[in-house]
Write a structure and sequence with these properties.
Layout (H helix, E strand, L loop, with lengths): L13 E3 L2 E3 L24 H11 L12 H4 L17 E2 L12 E2 L52 E2 L6 E3 L3 H6 L16 H9 L12 H7 L4 H9 L6 H12 L8 H6 L8 H11 L5 H4 L9 E2 L12 H5 L8 E2 L21 H9 L19 H11 L5 H4 L19 E3 L12 E3 L11 E10 L2 E7 L7 E3 L2 E3 L7 E8 L4 E11 L11 E8 L9 E2 L2 E5 L2
Antiparallel strand pairs: 1-2, 3-4, 5-6, 7-8, 9-19, 10-11, 11-16, 12-15, 12-17, 13-14, 17-18, 17-19
Helix pairs in contact: 1-5, 1-6, 1-7, 9-13, 12-13
Bound molecules: heme C (2 copies).
Length: 552
């Protein structure tokens, strides 16, 4: 154990200013957070904030109409992605294999798609939503960080992605926001440009897919086009990439969280922390030395450090950006505000909960090459570790946890009961591979691009998409395959030719439809199923389960 730690910290009683640092450690910060830094070229206004909020929560910004910024950045999850904890949000990591220790709990974005709505299988994910190779950090209080992303690659300047001119200095939020919408893993299709995306935004009905839109936002967007909202927010007409990003950045500068039990305590309310939390606080600033990196009002010093979460070569982090080997394995010190809401933890989502994080620090981290000398085995007892975990709960802002203003938000299509549901069981094909049906996009009337896709079929085998406009509840058998449509005139059969890819389990294809803008079709239920002319166990066919879509 390092001798740099404060010996018997309880002997040191420092009174600095009005903030009594009982039980030792550095002087305590004032409660709350500092004033938010605002770049001179992008002042905060109400209309720009509301426009940014609409854009942040609008799934129509993605190629598949299924992912908004907010899908991966949910206030109730402390600004990160609740799906990171779930099956299906795993990236195979450095070794390219699932279910190995280097797997990453990331964020699901979009299926790999082309501009025309066709989907193309990728190595790890097939036609499933691709998963990011890092966990989503929070957008809450991100306004304070001069550089964004775990590796600090966004900022400080904001360069217009279309004209390549510097629009803002200290515009890391705008610089960051420029990337996900044109990233083919997160929101975009292959080759999306900001020019195309700005044109798409200009033609959209704002938040058309969202529900429960907060009142102020609802009043702002109601009956308006984005083009009109941009005119209101910027004073002159024009929807552009740069303006889109200025608005999103402005909204994020209003997502400032500085109210928590810890702040109440700092303001003088001793009762705001339990006895156990107060003990944890002494460890945080004393024996645990957490405050060395997670100190101050923001509970981060915004530096890049290697605490030894993973072997360096798996992700060079800051080193890949600066090219300086000393930066290898360094990642941005995250603010611990709202941290209790944000499991799993670290840039790889590798620690399932705060207990796992504290255990990690207590053993001095897991990987030691280039590790920060501040990270040392701590020798904390179980009871001390529990106290530290309890203290980390004190950083939660109830407005964030409860998603109240300014952290209120619409609910998303992807959270609604409009998402198509799976029906019945699939019929495996050769090699026992089970073909998967993909129906994730909104079956909303007037959707120019609703894609239905299949993967894990047999490459080269002919495939058919069957769509039945009557809702079938039970299946029947044809050449060994379980089918979920009736053979009536209500059935349409779309022959798709041979599945791309070769061999069992590697076949995929997709078909995209324009849903008619016909109110008469509201509530019409469709059953869709892929049938593949390659079977197993004496069957001639294999099939996906069915998807049931209700037009709305
Ligand atoms: C598919 C999920 C996903 C979507 C969609 C997404 N993000 Fe992120 N976001 C991430 C991940 C993952 C990272 C971390 C990436 C890295 O560090 O390499 C990130 C990083 C960030 C950060 C940096 C925070 C920090 O402290 O460094 C901000 C801010 C942010 N995103 C805002 C946005 C905005 C604004 C949008 C929409 C324009 C958006 N995100 C869309 C997953 C997503
Ligand atoms: C040397 C600086 C440093 C020290 C000291 C330090 N941390 Fe960290 N902390 C970091 C960095 C850097 C990360 C992100 C690491 C990563 O993901 O690779 C982090 C991540 C975390 C996280 C996860 C946050 C998230 O959103 O995923 C928690 C919780 C945390 N630290 C708590 C603590 C506690 C408790 C202590 C004291 C026992 C401590 N830290 C000491 C730098 C430090």
């Amino acid at each position: 154990m390092s001798n740099r730690r404060l010996p018997n910290a309880s002997l040191l009683v420092l009174a600095i200013g009005t903030h009594l640092s009982a039980q030792g450690g550095p002087p305590l910060p004032p409660p709350g957070v500092p004033p938010v830094p605002v770049p001179p070229g992008n002042p905060i206004t109400v209309s720009k904030t509301l426009l940014g909020k609409a854009l942040f929560w609008d799934e129509q910004l993605s190629a598949t109409n299924t992912i908004s910024c907010g899908t991966c950045h949910v206030p109730g999850n402390g600004g990160s992605d609740p799906r990171s904890a779930l099956f299906g949000s795993v990236h195979p990591g450095f070794d390219g294999l699932f279910a190995t220790p280097d797997d990453i709990r990331g964020s699901r974005g979009v299926a790999n798609s082309e501009a025309d709505g066709d989907w193309i299988a990728t190595q790890f994910f097939g036609l499933a939503e691709q998963v990011t190779s890092r966990k989503a950090p929070t957008m809450i209080n991100a306004a304070y960080a001069p550089l964004l992303f775990w590796d600090g690659r966004a900022g400080p300047n904001f360069v217009d992605p279309v004209t390549s001119t510097v629009v803002l200095q200290q515009g890391a939020l705008e610089a960051q926001a420029a990337l996900p919408p044109v990233n083919a893993v997160e929101m975009g299709h292959l080759g999306t440009t900001w020019t195309e995306l700005a044109a798409k935004i200009g033609a959209l009905e704002p938040l058309a897919l969202a529900e429960d839109v907060p009142t102020d936002l609802q009043n702002f967007v109601r009956g308006k086009t984005y083009a009109e909202l941009f005119q209101t927010a910027f004073g002159t007409p024009g929807v552009s990439a740069s303006r889109t990003l200025l608005a999103i950045g402005t909204y994020e500068r209003t997502l400032i969280s500085g109210q928590s039990a810890w702040d109440d305590f700092l303001a003088g309310n001793q009762a705001a922390l339990t006895q156990q939390q107060q003990q944890g606080r002494a460890i945080f600033f004393g024996q645990g030395n957490c405050g060395a990196c997670h100190g101050g009002q923001l509970l981060t010093n915004n530096t890049f450090r290697n605490i030894g979460v993973r072997p360096i070569q798996e992700d060079l982090g800051r080193g890949a950006i600066t090219g300086n080997p000393a930066d290898n394995g360094r990642f941005k010190v995250p603010s611990l505000r709202n941290v209790a809401l944000r499991a799993p933890y670290f840039h790889n989502g590798g620690a399932a909960n705060l207990t796992a994080v504290v255990d990690f620090y207590n053993r001095g981290g897991d990987f030691f090459v280039n590790q920060d000398p501040l990270i040392q085995p701590l020798g904390l007892t179980l009871q001390q570790r529990q106290a530290l975990v309890a203290f980390l709960q004190a950083f939660t802002d109830p407005r964030v946890a409860n998603e109240t203003a300014p952290f209120d938000r619409p609910s998303l299509y992807s959270e609604s009961n409009h998402v198509p549901v799976a029906l019945g069981a699939p019929t495996p094909g050769p090699g026992g591979f089970v073909p998967r049906m993909w129906a994730t996009e909104p079956p909303v009337l007037g959707n120019p691009n609703l894609t239905l896709a299949v993967d894990r079929g047999t490459g080269g085998a002919p495939a058919f998409l069957i769509v039945d406009t009557s809702a079938i509840a039970a299946g029947w058998n044809l050449f060994g395959a379980q089918l979920y449509f009736a053979l009536t005139p209500a059935v349409s059969i779309f022959p798709m030719g041979a599945l791309s890819g070769s061999g069992p389990g590697n076949g995929s294809t997709s078909r995209s439809f324009a849903t008619p803008l016909d109110a008469g079709l509201q509530g019409q239920t469709l059953t869709a199923q892929w049938v593949i002319a390659a079977g197993s166990a004496g069957n001639l066919l294999s099939a996906t389960s069915a998807a049931q879509l209700t037009l709305y």
